[in-house]
TrEMBL record:
Stored PANTHER family: CARBONIC ANHYDRASE (PTHR18952:SF265)
Keywords assigned by UniProt, alphabetized: Lyase, Metal-binding, Zinc
Region Disordered, annotated ranges: 235-257
Enzymatic class: lyase
Biased composition (Basic and acidic residues): 247-257
Catalytic activity as recorded in UniProt: hydrogencarbonate + H(+) = CO2 + H2O
Short name of one Pfam family: Carb_anhydrase
Positions of the Alpha-carbonic anhydrase domain: 15-257
Gene Ontology terms for molecular function: carbonate dehydratase activity; zinc ion binding
Entry-linked InterPro entries: Alpha_CA_prokaryot-like, CA_dom, CA_dom_sf, Carbonic_anhydrase_a-class, TAT_signal
Designated name of the protein: carbonic anhydrase
Organism: Nocardioides exalbidus
Keyword Metal-binding: yes
Similarity section: Belongs to the alpha-carbonic anhydrase family.
């Protein structure tokens, strides 16, 4: 904001007003006050300051314990001649889930699981610190409203996610099919969560996303290293300003595994 303010102050008033409007409309991080403050993701979380609320509406997770999934690389620079080598922070490895293999309900409202994917380092931070990996399980209701479950992953005991992380498809290679995948083991059936309203963390950064972060979990160090080797410079968006949003959590939610 300092840069914007300086350039505005250097101009006659009428011109300054025009330029300020253009700048504010062009950058979601500077969205104008008349349109409301931006509510973007990810955010930094301070567990000591999070309001713990008993009896929040339960997030009920209904995932299959045996389903085929397909893993593919999400490429955003396919038109570039060296697009198969360049890693963009908008790219990831994504796991497509079969229709009906997973859904969640909250407040009696159903959201179907579409896909899950990973970011390194984690996008959400706890007291300013990243986990090495974060998994996003993306759900959508019948009106295409999004609900994302985020799971920060630290090195430790292995998880079902290792079956994906240790066998990732190349950027321009074939997708990989994994049979009998245990989706249900990725998230507890009634997880303690932290909740807030935010956005997609990749273009077009659409707001109105319901975010639920579970207590962080573990996956094998080998799985984390394998994903990191595909994205040596990372594929995560920096944290965004909270702007007085309400962040609440179940009393049992914790910021570390
Ligand atoms: Zn994501």
């Amino acid at each position: 904001m300092n840069v914007a303010r300086r350039s505005v102050l250097g101009l006659p008033l009428a011109a300054a007003g025009t330029i300020a409007t253009v700048r504010l409309l062009g950058d979601p991080a500077l969205a104008s006050t008349s349109a409301g403050v931006p509510h973007q993701s990810p955010i930094d979380i301070h567990p000591a300051d999070v309001r713990r609320v008993a009896n929040l509406p339960a997030l009920k997770v209904h995932y299959s314990s045996s389903t085929p999934v397909r893993v593919h690389y999400v490429q955003k620079d396919g038109s570039d001649s060296d697009g198969c080598q360049i890693r963009s922070d908008q790219e990831t490895e994504e796991v497509e889930v079969a229709d009906g293999a997973g859904h969640v309900t909250v407040d009696g409202h159903r959201y179907d699981l579409l896909q899950f994917h990973f970011h390194t380092r984690s996008e959400h931070t706890i007291d300013g610190r990243h986990a090495p990996l974060e998994m996003h399980l993306v759900h959508q209701d019948s009106e295409e409203r999004k609900l994302v479950i985020g799971v920060l992953l630290h090195p430790g005991a292995s998880s079902e996610a290792d079956r994906i992380l240790t066998e990732l498809p190349d950027e321009c290679g074939d997708e990989i099919e994994v049979d009998d995948f245990d989706l249900a083991s990725l998230v507890p059936a009634r997880p303690a969560t932290l909740r807030y309203r935010g956005s997609l963390t990749t273009d077009p950064y659409t707001e109105g996303v319901r975010w639920f972060l579970t207590t962080p979990q573990t996956t094998s160090a080998a799985g984390i290293k394998a994903f990191r080797s595909v994205f040596p410079d990372g594929d995560s968006r920096p944290t965004q300003k909270l702007h007085h949003r309400r962040v609440v959590a179940d009393p049992e939610w914790r910021g570390r595994p």
